[in-house]
Specification:
The protein has 669 residues and is of the alpha+beta class. It has five domains: 3-64, Helix hairpin bin (Helix Hairpins, Orthogonal Bundle); 86-317, DNA ligase/mRNA capping enzyme (D-amino Acid Aminotransferase, Chain A, domain 1, 2-Layer Sandwich), CATH 3.30.470; 322-397, Nucleic acid-binding proteins (OB fold (Dihydrolipoamide Acetyltransferase, E2P)), CATH 2.40.50; 409-590, Orthogonal Bundle (DNA polymerase, domain 1); 600-668, Rossmann fold (3-Layer(aba) Sandwich), CATH 3.40.50.10190. The chain has 24 helices and 22 strands. Strand 12 and strand 13 form a beta hairpin. It is globular and about 85 Å long. It binds 2-(butylsulfanyl)adenosine (IVH). 2-(butylsulfanyl)adenosine binds at residues 82-84, 117, 119-120, 124, 140, 177, 229-230, 291, 310, 313, 315.
Length: 669
């Protein structure tokens, strides 16, 4: 490449990388896979090496991460949090070892002690301990200035709030990676999809999105974990080696990855990498490579740092879990809420040990953007996720006659009109009796996290529908053994088991029942909130917008979805028939341990001791419920000056009325 061409390409790459950095670090919603990003980055590094006078201080190759967001208070790191240089092959690792020795003036055949660690796919944070107490926690940000996420980090259960040391150091900075386990990541994405929110692309984005929340209550619900991997500044503590650091901190209560290992030379590094590559798919968290560090801190200091990364460490990345295959068909599929999404049926291909034959294309906009057509050769990738994704089309392999796949105008299953809901990317079938929606809603109702009807899976549900034995979920509870015996290959015992499973599901917890109903935007988490706040179906059915909105975390969209579900006569009829068949959801304990557990408060009049929001928070912190209107269920009305109709209503219903002072006394009693 000549210089003018290199200059153009460098500028193009910088623009692209800056754009992708923004999507990744700021919005936590990347557009391209990590592997594709690495490719762009690597190309830029190589070009800048080849044409050193085209390198510039503001190139993304000189920077780490992205500047902190304004919505957080900023924290300047005492010493910069650097990034790591990547390596993708054994040759690059051997090069790294040679560079280290050359820099130190050591002979090429001298062995160096290294520490190898899994490269966690999460986000880097710094934890500051002053005299043993956790005081400030921040994200890496741009390496110099990060975001203050102390309150959020305090909700991470494995971060000790106090070091387990009798004589803790005056100051100890710990750096580590906050991550989300694969199980938690998949559960979170499932909940998001059910609630109509876009799923996170990978566990890293999920962890970052969870930690960079303004409301730590949301963070607290995400089971984040941490492994610490390096000390920052320290006063009153001395470490001489990486291995010494990693073996010490667990005694102080700080988690370090138990898979980290000290090795005696670069050959052992290569063996460690192969071992981890083989283990990768069975680990409970996502790793994207191995980090190799010179063990001795004295040697690390001697080697020093370059602008964005240290000379004493390297990240040896795993190849992406990608494969190339052909899209045989694109099929619009209808979910239980009527959303019609494109699914790609692929020529089966193995992607790191798993055969992939289907990939979700998420929505029609994505299909359009990536321009995926039937017959296309595509790159598919598994990114720590169960559902593989189509990363991109191999453009020059497109068959001549491949046409764009049209966005359906009618439901592929029932022919009803499909509409695009304003503000959503999804298109939805509006058919009330769409068989696909009915099938999916029954499958959902019986599924493990809902009513958990053991054994009643997709195949049996399809047969029930085909035989016309069920038309909605209530019909399940009116089935008899004779009905099941009409199935192909159905035995006596199997039919009995299915009936028992249906019978047993009659007494599931209320939250499961609410979730099983498949109310749009009500995932497991919201269902739990509703169960806790209302305590019974009767109460929930009669709820009002005001009451729903008084529940923290329930916004206007979710509230309106709940209301329209219960305003639908057909839905109410199904619930009546479920109840008549003996379905009796059990009531869950409300938040345990709080002073106001199970109590409902209404605040009215002008309050002088606290704001309405504070009052609500105080009640909720103690497990109670702050409602907007007075009913028989209200336990206390807290009345300030000039209380009006709510006070009258309380008197009329005989609800206890107390003053603000009395409320505070109750709280402190
Ligand atoms: S050491 C100066 N160790 O990888 C070296 N980093 O690209 C500091 N990471 O910012 C990093 N696991 O977010 C180190 N065991 C590990 C790691 C690790 C994941 C991440 C971390 C860092 C990035 C470097």
């Amino acid at each position: 490449m000549d210089k003018p061409a290199a200059e153009r390409r460098i500028s193009e790459l910088r623009n692209q990388i800056n754009h992708h950095n923004w999507r990744y670090y700021v919005e936590d919603q990347p557009e391209i896979s990590d592997a594709d990003y690495d490719k762009l980055f690597h190309e830029l590094v190589k070009l800048e090496e080849q044409f050193p006078d085209l390198a510039s201080a503001d190139s993304p190759t000189r920077r780490v991460g992205a500047p902190p967001l304004d919505k957080f208070v900023q924290v300047r790191h005492r010493s910069p949090m650097l990034s790591l240089e990547d390596a993708f092959s054994e040759a690059e690792i051997l090069d790294f070892d040679e560079r280290v020795k050359r820099f130190l003036g050591l002979p090429a055949d001298k062995d160096i002690d290294y520490v190898c660690e899994p490269k966690m796919d999460g986000l880097a944070v710094e934890l500051i301990y002053e005299n043993g107490a956790f005081t400030v926690g921040s994200t890496r940000g741009d390496g110099f200035v990060g975001e203050d996420v102390t309150q959020n980090l305090k909700t991470v259960k494995t971060i000790p709030l106090r070091l387990n040391l009798t004589h803790p150091p005056q100051l100890l900075e710990l750096r580590g990676e906050v991550y989300l386990s694969l199980a938690a990541f998949q559960k979170l994405n499932q909940e998001r999809e059910e609630a109509g929110e876009p799923p996170f692309a990978n566990p890293r984005n999920a962890a970052a999105g969870s930690l960079r929340q303004l409301d730590s209550k949301i963070t607290a619900k995400r089971p984040l974990s941490i492994f610490c991997y390096a000390p920052g500044e320290a006063t009153g503590a001395e470490f001489t080696s990486q291995h010494g650091f990693l073996t010490n901190i667990p005694h102080w209560g700080v988690p370090a990855n138990p898979l980290a290992r000290k090795v005696a030379n670069i050959q052992e590094v290569l063996a460690y990498y192969r071992e981890m590559a083989a283990k990768r798919d069975s680990l409970p968290y996502e790793i994207d490579g191995v980090v190799v560090k010179v063990d001795s801190f004295a040697i690390q200091r001697e080697l020093g740092e370059k602008t964005r990364s240290p000379r004493w460490a390297v990240a040896y990345k795993f190849p992406p879990r990608q494969a190339i295959t052909v899209v045989e068909r694109i099929v619009p599929s209808v979910g239980r809420t009527g959303v019609v999404t494109p699914v790609a049926f692929l020529r089966p291909v193995e992607v790191s040990g798993v055969t992939v034959s289907r990939a979700t294309l998420h929505n029609w906009e994505e299909l359009e953007k990536k321009d995926i057509r039937e017959g296309d050769t595509v790159v598919v990738e598994r990114a720590g996720d169960v559902i593989p994704a189509v990363v991109q089309v191999v453009a020059d392999q497109r068959p001549k006659d491949a046409a764009k796949f049209p966005v359906p105008q009618t439901c592929p299953e029932c022919g009803s009109e499909v509409v695009k809901i304003p503000g959503e990317v999804a298109i939805r079938c509006m058919g009330l009796s769409c068989p696909a929606q009915i099938r999916e809603s029954i499958i959902h109702f019986a599924s493990r996290n809902a009513m958990d009807i053991d054994g009643l899976g997709e195949k049996y549900i399809e047969q029930l529908l085909r035989l016309g034995l069920v038309k909605n979920v209530a019909d399940l509870y009116y089935l008899t053994k004779d009905h099941f015996m009409q199935f192909e290959r159905m035995g006596d015992k199997l039919a009995d088991n299915l009936l028992t499973a249906i019978e047993q599901s009659k007494q599931r917890e209320l939250s499961r029942f609410i979730y099983a109903l498949g109310i749009r935007q009500v995932g497991e988490h919201t269902a739990k909130l509703l169960a806790k706040s209302f305590g019974s179906m009767e109460h929930l059915e009669k709820t009002s917008a005001e009451e729903l909105l008084s529940i923290r975390e329930i916004g206007p969209q979710v509230a309106s979805s709940i209301l329209s579900f219960f305003h639908n006569q057909e839905n109410l009829l199904v619930i009546r028939r479920l109840v008549a068949a003996g379905v009796k959801p059990t009531v869950e304990e409300k938040t345990v341990g709080g002073k106001f557990t199970g109590r409902t408060f209404v605040f009215t009049g002008s309050l002088t001791r606290f704001s309405r929001d504070e009052a609500k928070r105080m009640v909720e912190n103690e497990g109670g419920h702050a409602a907007g209107s007075v009913s028989k269920k209200t336990d206390y009305v807290v009345a300030g000056a000039e209380a009006g109709s709510k006070l009258d209503k309380a008197r009329e219903l005989g609800v206890q009325v107390i003053t603000e002072e009395e409320f505070l006394q109750l709280l402190e009693s």
